[in-house]
Amino acid sequence: MTAMIEARGLSLAIHGMPILRGVSFALREGETFGLVGESGSGKSMTALSLMRLLPEGAEASGEILLAGRDLMALGEAEMCDLRGREMAMISQEPMTALNPVQTIADQVAETLIVHAAARPREARRIALERLARVGLPPDAIPPDRYPHELSGGQRQRVAIAMAIALRPRLLIADEPTTALDVTTQAQILALLKGLVREEGMGLMLITHDLAVVAGMADRVAVMQEGRIVEEGDTESLFTRMRHPYTRALFEASAHQPERRPTARAEPLLVAEDVVREYRMPGLRLFGPAPRFRAVDHVSFTIHKGESLGLVGESGCGKSTLTRALLGLDPIDGGRIRLGGEEITAGRHMPARLRRRMQVVFQDPYASFDPRWKVGRLVAEPFHLLETPPEDPAARVAEALADVGLPADAADRYIHEFSGGQRQRIAIARALVLKPDLVILDEAVSALDVSIRAQILDLLADLQARLGLAWLFISHDLNVVRAITDRVLVMQAGRIVEEGETERVLTAPEHPYTQTLIKAAPQIPAAWRKALHG
Amino acid sequence: MRARLPLQLLIGAAIFAAFALAALVSFLWVPHDVTALNIAAKLAPPSREYPLGTDHFGRDMLSMLMVGARTSIAVAILAVGIGMLAGVPLGLWAAARRGSLIDEIIMRGNDLVFAFPSLVIAILITAVFGPSATNAIIAIGIFNIPVFARVSRGAALSLWTRDFIMAARVAGKRAFRISLEHILPNIANVLIVQGTIQFSLGILAEAGLSYVGLGAQPPTPSWGRMLAEAQTMIYTAPRLAILPGLAIVLAVLGLNLMGDGLRDLLDPRLRRARQ
Amino acid sequence: MLNRLKLAIAALALSASAALAAKDTITLGMVLEPPNLDPTAGAAAAIDEVVYANIFEGLTRFAPDGSILPALAESWEISDDGKVYTFTLHGGVKFHDGTEMDATDVKFSLDRARAPDSTNAQKALFAGIESVEALDPRTVRVTLKNPDGLFPFKMAWGDAVIVAPESIDKDATHPIGTGPFRFVKWVKGDRVEIEKNPDYWGTPVKLSHATFKFISDPNAAFAAMMAGDVDAFPNFPAPETLEQFKADPRFRVIVGSTEGETILSTNNKAGPLADIRVREAIAHAINRQEIIDGAMFGYGTPIGTHFAPHNPAYVDLRALSKYDPELSKKLLKEAGQEGLRLRLMLPPPTYARRGGEIVASQLRAVGIETEITNLEWAQWLEQVFKGKDYDLTIVSHTEPMDIGIYARPDYYFQYDNPAFRDLMDQLNLATDPTKRAAILGAAQAMIARDYVNGYLFQLAKTGVANAKIRGLWENAPTQANDLTGVYWEE
Amino acid sequence: MIRYLARRLLSLALSLIAASIVIFAVIEIIPGDPAAYMLGLNASPEAVAALRDQLGLNGTAFSRYLDWAGGLLQGDFGQSYTYRVPVAELIGERIQVSLPLAAYALVLTVLIAFPVGLIAAARRGRPADWGIMAATQLGIAIPNFWFAMLLVLLFAVKLHWFSAGGFPGWEGGLAAGLKALTLPAIALALPQASILARVMRSSLIDTLHQDYIRTARAKGLTRRQALLRHALRNGLIPVLTIMGLQFSFLLAGAIIIENVFFLPGLGRLIFQAITQRDLIVVEGVVMLLVFAVIVVNFMVDIAYGAADPRLRRRR
User: Fold this and answer.
1) Rounded CA gap, B40 and B49, in Å?
2) Burial class (CB within 10 angstroms; exposed 0-12, middle 13-18, buried 19+) of A397
């Protein structure tokens, strides 16, 4: 079969910084081609180069042949004619990919209108048909809705409908499901698979998740720092993994830090029937506005030194619960006691109680004040001590050492550190007062697989050494399996299942947990055994 | 886009520095005493002795412009000071207590002051309490307060949702300390940019007030009044009306260019692109 | 395209023809807008500048040269003891609303003006009246408390015009008088329009329609004149542009005199100013010609006392306060007032604002520091005129023959000299012109020697008009824009 | 939507009441007595006292506030001290100049700012953008009264295309009225157009950085199509607020321009009223201007709802 699209020696530099260094690959008709790599490896830039939608200051070279035509030689007008008709793209952020002030039907129909493929009335008919095809039938989801009225998954479906309106030969999907929940991700991937099969489209799937690629792609290419280091059909690549980087990537994603159980029987944090409600901006003029119950009678106990997991999809109430546990927001029912003492909201929480519990956030770039030096950042919790420590600098240096960072890090600003290093600093800040409990709110979700593995090892080591307990909140089952003793599964504000992690993840009792586990993409066990055998 | 940034800032800073320098120098030395009238030498064309000629009272235009710069800059900068000292704390307080009664009161108060026609009220204040530079400062300053309150509240609100603020709350710090230690330093650049804009608007407002005779009183020279007095002689001595007008335009232009340059320099979006 | 062409030609023709017929409408520029149009209930000069001799008429009126002419009163006899005036009125005179004008209207007007609760700004004019009787529709007898040679002069003032009881309440906004012009409309803040009164009792006027346009901003006045929006500007606010208009053939500059004695009023009871040596020192520090050149660009005649130079009874006393800075420094040292600091309050007109700056620098030259405060008229009246809370101020007294104000101790410069009050009493009794001139001369000398105020200059009347306009007043014996004699010369 | 409207109307009413109290208080403490001013230089004290009584200047501050505020509700702004005519009539005359002038200036502002802002955003970073930015910088820096002066000198005094000022009234036809307002409108529009063009440009540039623009480009839209079909409408929303502010400023801010062109507008009325201490007129006009601003803000809010569906149903 002739290659439907082929890149030969594709190189790219932005403002002089090299991004791609001679990338070559080919994609045949009706084939799903997986491009996998960590952030900064240049996979998104490859996609944008194919579409020739590069940002300002980008200089690209090499050849891109679409059915024999070299796109690099085409003028802007010809490229506009190709985009949407011959090749299309969907991007990672469904929340911002759609025009907020235009109805979904109009946006899908626009692809047809712009290419003069149909008059407006006809274009709308096709648009409705395409929306139905991607799982948004007009009777279920009225076509004249606006993007803000749809969920993340539904918006991604609209984006797909827009892309396939003119049945292009190639669909490029750049991290299409990274921002979605596990269950929604499974549906979208199934939809893409169906489209490739039925419409004979070529699909280029870009992701950082090996499991997703394993389940979807016919052939896979692994990228590192702007180069394809290994390429081949999926099964042979996974079972042989000749290139060391591919192997390291695989190892890191399945990494299980060894942990010594340090859980003790003595309860540390006890939550009884905790309820938290939000006032909805109601439509009725008088009478109580309807209330949305984010946390609905949640009860659980964290024992000293225990590593408790909390799993649930976005919108299930995890972060609301976290804010309640930290005493940042008042609770509308039930009680939370830390070491026997009751936690009350915000202002009047005594310092000695707050000293026993700290938190690490998800986004390493947002959890630090850019204007503060690292030393002062880590020392901020000292505010909770009645008398400031005699030698704060030493305490900070010790905390930094605990997380494997040099003492001189204290004199530098946060923007001089990588994502992984920043999370280490966050952990140092949480541990500087030697708390009993640390809440890790999606602490590793934003990190690349290799760095995530190092942080998990660090956490396991710290728990063993300092005997502290933590509540590990995540939407990623693999991470939870790696680091927690017991796990709670949360859905729509309620704990639907609780138990020892291994038991819950291998023999789930509650149907929701079952769908959760089934939806999470797994690298086939046979391939893993073949690799180790 | 980035290459152009320092140019805008440099040009603006250079122009404004010239005026600031002229104003400072005028404290120590001025070619001719602006209070001494010399009717005999009135409307003299530019000469070695009077580089920019003399006005209808025979005073040296260059000295008048230099001392006039002092008035304009002093009035505008103090008005910005009033705006910042009163406006920023209000904005921070409203943001710290967003959604509460305080927030509502401060915002409603802001809208109320915004609803008042600033020029009309400025004229009322200066006319009522006697035209003088101090009254002009107060009149212009009052209308800077809501601007800074609104700008600082807006910037602070977007910060309050950031994780590092929650981290500070978990470290036991309360709204007041957080506003001081975290919020203020991080909205400083927005305030600096807004400051330069209000500074340039202040110069225009002072010129407007003095033009209708309500700014600084004689014998203190002010650009606006020089403009008003020179207007009727625009035919016989256009120089008298052109020079003060030009001085106002250049000073405001310099400040606005500086403001633009600062905004690009400090704009996080651009800064991240540069890292 | 063709019809558009035809339209253009027609329009051109139309406008051309209008220009050919002799122009009989005029647009007059004025600086201040009158607060209302009833001269008997407000003192603002702007009211008289619109209505005097145009809409309203009194028993007598001022002639352009300041002399007194008969108006509604055809003639009058004075009794031997000078106390009783019998006026015979013109017959067949009607108000603009058609009602007859007769003796009862005269009685109504005079009684109304001198009533205790009257809001007439010049009540003093009528204070001397004992009684007013309407003998028959055309004769009025006025009996005075004591003889007053100036009575016909007083009846010529704008505040003494004859009004009708039927129309008096509406006069403020819709004036009804007996004059040659009728009121048309008043667009507040912009203009007042008047038109020819078809059934006027006297000689008909040449103009059919006149507009008084209010332009306070000197630059706007200059632009309006140059652009031809305004035909004449009797009191042009920007003397510095007169050279411009003189050089332009389209315009004529009319320079005359006014009754405005521009003085540096001194608060005779304010601390150091009570000492005559300090007042004399101030007088000698003033260089009048420099003020006239600097502030009024040369228009204005220096004066040595509070009297109009064009008045025959004027005595030139400028030598008493000649410009001598050294003398004023000596006097200040004698009075022990080195480093004196005085407050100088300035009302809005240009003669005050510009004059003030020049006076301030001249006083500074002899060691007197002044702190200038610019005030609006309302504030000036409140703080300076009524409150007497000032040291120095500059104002032009434009009422005719007002030397009598020096006889009022409560007047704002607080000059209290019984000898001067005797002179004024003698003046009121005297009817013989030479005797009156002698008394006036002595009065002028007294206030000059007492250095009551700094006498600066007589305000000039600087007007600009289209070169083709004739009949505008050159001088301003009273505040008025008498259009009765005005016409376009073709 | 009804609950939101009710809340907004309530806050509107509250603001008006608060504004009326503030205005009355500020003007209460003004020194200077209108009666004295009206009677002039040699007026006798009893005459002044008689007039004060006639004008109702005596009585406690609170009672006078109640009369005034009560009157406002029925559209009776009280009686002008100097002109002795109802203030409402005065305002009625003057608003016929100020409102059309503000509208005319706003139309000019939009006609200039929109295309200029669009071009600058479309060609950002290139010479056209540079040139426009420099021009708008100048536009903002020039004081409008100085610019007005230059306009008069060039177009009225030298070229005689326009009259130097004054207002013939609308009876002489729309054309004559508009002609008289042209130069003042240009003088007012210059700085406002520069501000609006800059706001338009930066708002469009922000929008062009959004993801949905890249999605549109990926669908095959050219750069221009993406700008016109997607960026423009999203970019307009912040521009609406600025236009709302500008209209209220134009209504009140023309005070100096009306002096330069001696237009009988609200600006000059209030300026004269301040100098003549005609307090009742000052109160009336300021109240009207505040009311106009609040109503304009209210309309901008409604327009927001129309322009941005996200704001529509959620309220």
Assistant:
1) 15
2) buried
Is D112's pLDDT higher than 90? yes
Q: Give mean pLDDT, residues D255-280.
A: 84
Q: What does the mean pLDDT of chain B come to?
A: 86
Q: Which residue of B has its CA nearest to A369?
A: B164
Tell me whether 0.85 is exceeded by the ipTM. no
Q: How far is B213 from chain D (nearest CA, A)?
A: 11
**Residue D168, exposed/middle/buried by CB under 10 A (0-12, 13-18, 19+)?**
middle
pLDDT tens profile A330-351: 888 888 888 888 887 655 678 8
| d(C-alpha D240, C-alpha D249), whole Å | 14
Chains contacting C (3 or more CB pairs within 8 Å) = B, D
Segment B82-98 mean pLDDT? 92
- The amino acid present at D242, given as its one-letter code, is I
CA A24 to chain D, closest CA, distance in angstroms equals 22
Distance from the B152 Cα atom to the nearest Cα atom in chain D, whole angstroms: 18
Four-point Cα dihedral A186, A192, A194, A198, nearest 10:
180
The answer to whether chain B touches chain C by having 3 or more C-beta pairs less than 8 angstroms apart is yes
Q: Tell me, yes or no, if A83 comes closer than 8 A to chain D by beta carbon.
A: yes
Whether residues A367 and B168 touch (CB distance < 8 A) is answered with no
Mean pLDDT of C98-120: 88
Whether residue A216 is predicted with pLDDT greater than 60 in this model: the reply is: yes
Residues 147..176 of A with a Cβ closer than 8 Å to D: which? 148, 159, 162-163, 165
- Give, in degrees to the nearest 5, the angle at Cα A364 between A363 and A366: 65
Question: E strand or H helix at B180, and its extent?
Answer: none
Dihedral sign for Cα atoms in the order C29, C35, C36, C39: negative
Instruction: List the single residue in C219, C229, C397 with the smallest CB-CB distance to D163.
Output: C229
The Cα A281–Cα A277 span in angstroms is 13
Contacts of A285 in chain D (CB under 8 A): 2-3, 6
Instruction: Look up residue C359 and give its two tokens.
Output: 């006076």
**Quick check: B219 and C358 CB within 8 A?**
no
Give the CA angle between residues C318, C321, C322 to the nearest 5°. 80
Q: Report the percentage of chain C scoring pLDDT > 70.
A: 95
Q: Given an 8 Å threshold on Cβ–Cβ distance, is B130 in contact with C373?
A: yes
The radius of gyration of chain C from alpha carbons, rounded to an integer in Å, stands at 25
Kindly state the DSSP code that residue D231 receives in the 8-state scheme.
I
How many Cβ contacts (< 8 angstroms) between chains A and B? 54
* Residue C175 pLDDT: 92
How many Cβ atoms from other residues are within 10 Å of residue D161's Cβ? 12
Q: With an 8 Å Cβ cutoff, are C240 and B236 in contact?
A: yes
Best residue of A380, A418, A433 to probe chain B, by most B CBs closer than 10 Å: A380
Flag whether pLDDT at C17 surpasses 50. Answer: no
pLDDT at A533: 55
Q: Does B36 touch chain C (CB under 8 A)?
A: yes
- Cis-peptide into B219, omega within 30 deg: yes
Distance of residue D152 Cα from the nearest chain A Cα, in angstroms: 45
Q: For D33-42, what is each residue's pLDDT tens digit? A: 666 666 655 5
Q: What is the mean pLDDT of the segment spanning D65-93?
A: 82
Question: Which residues lie below 8 Å from residue A339, measured CB to CB, with a gap of 6+?
Answer: A268, A269, A353, A356, A436
Q: Which residues of C touch B235 (CB under 8 A)?
A: 241, 244
Q: What are phi and psi of A98, to 5 degrees?
A: -110, 150
pTM score: 0.83
Tokens representing C65?
């040269």
DSSP A139-188: TTS-TT--GGGS-HHHHHHHHHHHHTTT--SEEEEESTTTTS-HHHHHHH
Which positions in chain A touch B156 (Cβ < 8 Å)?
none
pLDDT exceeds 80 at position C387? yes
